[in-house]
TrEMBL record:
Keywords: Oxidoreductase. Pfam families: adh_short (PF00106). The keyword Oxidoreductase applies. InterPro entries: NAD(P)-bd_dom_sf, Sc_DH/Rdtase_CS, SDR_fam. CDD domains: SDR_c (cd05233). This is Short-chain dehydrogenase/reductase SDR. Transmembrane segments: none annotated. GO terms for molecular function: oxidoreductase activity. The keyword Cytoplasm does not apply. PANTHER family: 5-KETO-D-GLUCONATE 5-REDUCTASE (PTHR43669), ALCOHOL DEHYDROGENASE, PUTATIVE (AFU_ORTHOLOGUE AFUA_3G03445)-RELATED (PTHR43669:SF3). Belongs to the short-chain dehydrogenases/reductases (SDR) family. Gene3D superfamilies: NAD(P)-binding Rossmann-like Domain.
Amino acid sequence: MTTVLNGKRAVVTGAAGGIGAALAAELIDRGTAVVLADLSPDVSDTAAELGASAFAWTGDVSSVEGIGALIAFADDRLGGIDLYFANAGIIGPAMLGETDADWDAIIDVNMRAHIRAAQALVPRWQEAGSGYFVATASAAGLLTQIGSAAYSVTKHASVGFAEWLAMTYRDDGIRASVICPMGVNTNLLDDAGAGGGSAQKAVTSAGTVMEPAEVATIVLDAVEDEQFLILPHPEVLEMYRMKGSDYDRWLRGMSRYQARLNDQ
């Protein structure tokens, strides 16, 4: 397949499975060389299945040291980075959480990992005159996440950070996109259902649960068009519009929806 991604070099985090693995596979189909990064050693098996254009890196992409090591690895294997997919994410604690440590972990993975990667990559992209940062957020970043304050807050932050990148560095040739799906058939969705909480029910009852490969195709089509807001579930746009048109009404409706889920 010949596309604008042909010959590009990409890093995808959270790539051992789920959306990250699907993005890596679709990128390779479009002619991109990819470093797959994940904390899980399973990423090596995922990369091996994708062939000679895939390289596995195992480590913590939420830390400054990890980001530095990942970028150095990508430079060595690929000769540079044209696109960075900040896809790694965790569901975090239920409700308000119980300790600062609960919040520290999800803030590092879902938010600071994006900031730290951009701090390392933007200067070199400015010098090169091009670069692309793609953040995996969630519909929760536009709406909210019933049952998890930390997930909702960090995904809002992910959307806000990508938006700021897209605006600030546009004239430098740098682009940014943010992915905001609802339910996708991944381990993260399974984690949201742990303990019988309402977070998973809120997602699965709101719309179709998509397969990662479907999401990857939609995402990369949008990236090729340099589209900022990527909505694999298009109905999220109407929900977002309803929220913005009458915030108080939306809050009352979400409260009733939460009550129904809790009753179930």
